[in-house]
TrEMBL record:
Name of this chain's protein: Putative membrane protein
Annotated signal sequence range: none
S-adenosyl-L-methionine recorded as keyword: no
Record key words, sorted: Membrane, Transmembrane, Transmembrane helix
Keyword Transmembrane helix part of the UniProt annotation: yes
Length: 187
């Protein structure tokens, strides 16, 4: 068996997937803690309540969470809306929200690489990337869970960007960084 085959056999896929799931949930929860009150009082949410609809707080916090991954919210059949980002700018949420997913993913990659006893940067990066399946799964599910529909109009995180950026790029990049940190600091 080659060295690369043995490396792949040692990838903690189950532990990495669980870490990815937990990281995604923690990221959403931190976003909710930071932005939830403002979202609840937002004009869009107030409008939904005014017309007799249920408040869409958890969905709209989801939009903010995806925005923290640079994924816009897309509006279908809504006049004057196309794509929208809710972080930063004059009316946006704190820029702190942009660091939540990377920091949590670095921490998850580091933890998984430490768990797998990665002894160098390559092994650490491979272990860190194992957070992708769990993070990707919830990133795909969240796109549909965070859709708000009212008649023919709807709004949700952009599907392609949500899968690509939030589900793949972020966990690959930052999970690997955490894994590399674990590998190069292994004793």
């Amino acid at each position: 068996m080659s060295q690369s085959d043995s490396r792949l056999q040692n990838v903690p896929l189950v532990q990495g997937s669980v870490a990815g799931l937990l990281t995604w949930v923690l990221g959403y929860l931190f976003t909710y803690l930071i932005a939830g009150d403002e979202v609840q009082e937002s004009e869009i949410n107030q409008f939904l309540e005014f017309i007799g609809e249920e408040p869409a707080t958890y969905e709209m916090v989801g939009w903010v969470f995806y925005n923290a991954h640079f994924v816009d919210t897309t509006f279908q059949n809504v006049p004057f809306f196309g794509s929208e980002a809710f972080i930063g700018g004059e009316d946006g949420f704190t820029m702190l929200l942009y660091v939540i997913p990377p920091l949590l993913l670095i921490g998850a990659g580091l933890a998984v690489a430490r768990y797998s006893a990665a002894q160098n940067a390559n092994d650490g990066a491979i272990a860190g990337i194992s957070v992708v399946p769990g993070y990707l799964l919830l990133s795909i599910a969240g796109i549909f869970l965070f859709e708000v529909t009212l008649g023919d109009a709807s709004a949700a995180p952009d599907l392609v960007a949500g899968v690509f950026l939030a589900g793949l790029v972020f966990p690959v990049l930052f999970g690997a960084v955490g894994g590399v940190l674990a590998g190069v600091t292994a004793e």
